[in-house]
Amino acid sequence: MPLARPLSLLAALGLFLAPLPSADAFGPPPAPTLQQDARAKLMAEFTRFAALSDGTVGIAVRDLQTGETQALNGDTLFPMASAYKVAVAGRILALADAGDLRLDDQLALDPALASEGGIAWMFSRPGATLSVDRLLELMLQKSDNNATDVLVARAGGPRAITAFVNGLGVTGLRVDSDTAHLLYRAMGIRPLSGSFRQNADAARRADPQLVVRDMRDLPNLAFATEPEDTATPTAMLDLMTAYQAGRALSPASTRRLFTIMAHCETGKARIVGMLPPGTAVAHKTGSLNGVGNDVGVVRLPDGRSFAIVVFVMKDSKGHVARDRIIAEAARAAYDYFLYAPDRMHGRAHNT
Question: What are the boundaries of the signal sequence (predicted)?
Fold first, then answer.
């Protein structure tokens, strides 16, 4: 009996002298595993959103501080629709940086460049002009096709715009048409002469299914598989990154581009649709039958930012479904970049 107390003391000492368990026995897995889980969850969310469409969805997002990139169908070609206008703007602002034009230059509204909607009515006024800066605003904020085609002509045409993009090291994005001819291709017509309105009206009379396709917002599957005027989500992401990083334009032109895009009036239910009120977003939409796109840069509350591209094609469920896909993807990316565990610096690709 007298030995009991000494033995108990030795046993107690043994608890302190024994080797300690590893840290993993007390807490969660290491940060890399947490990060892997966060990425897997993000990609699962992207896949779930894509299932809302009966077409094809491409999503690409990038942390503009670390370069980390996550993508679903990131290397698939999609029709850009009006999202190509961010490339037009870049080429125009690069010309301004080079001293080849000024933003207050007045450009003539050539009636031959008029299509439908927007400021088309102004083209019938002899001598009508608008400044380059105002045309940029109309193109990026209201997606005005007429303003765009005046700028495409001043930019040197589609090939010059593609050359500008390629000169930034961006591949997988090509501009082959001005907006009027892009719309001709989307409608499936090959006019040789006449105004856009005349040609479009004649095509609709000859093929009433064109009107049905417009009314029901159905895709032109042949158009969606053509390589002209397309981009991969990753290529468009690379272009937005080049702008944001200051590799494409002067600081003044970069500020002007994003200031205009921050006041985009189209696509209120797309990238911005599910983000917290007041979130700073600079973006540009694109829409055609069966096509819904949005590309932009989103500012996080801590001052960091990320770029996002969402393309939807061959979709027959309508613009409401396409808008929701884009909005859901933007919110998932917002939460991932803001709240996911600290991520390793550098670039990580999932395509």
Answer: 1-25
β strands within 39-92, DSSP E: 56-63, 69-72, 78-79
Distance (Å, whole) CA 40 – CA 43: 5
Q: Which residue has the tokens 């940029």?
A: 136
Render pLDDT for 234-262 as a digit per residue (tens, 0 to 9).
999 999 999 999 999 999 999 999 999 99
Beta bridge partners of 69: 62
Place of tokens 């932009």: 296
Q: How far apart are CA 241 and CA 225, in angstroms?
A: 26
DSSP for 169-219, please give it.
Answer: T--SB-----HHHHHHHHHT----SS-HHHHHHHHHHH-THHHHHHHHT--
Mean of per-residue pLDDT scores for the chain: 89
Q: Are 187 and 179 in contact, with CB atoms under 8 Å apart?
A: no
User: Residue 5: inside a domain, yes or no?
Assistant: no
CA 177, 122, 256 angle in degrees (round to 5)? 65
Write out pLDDT tens, residues 143-152.
999 999 999 9
Return the DSSP state at 276. P
Q: Residue 319's pLDDT band (boundaries 50, 70, 90)? A: very high
The boundaries of the domain holding residue 316 are 31-339
Domains held by the chain: number: 1
Determine, yes or no, domain membership for 135. yes
Record the tokens describing residue 18, joined without a space. 């024994």
pTM of the model: 0.87
For residue 158, what are its two tokens? Answer: 């589609």
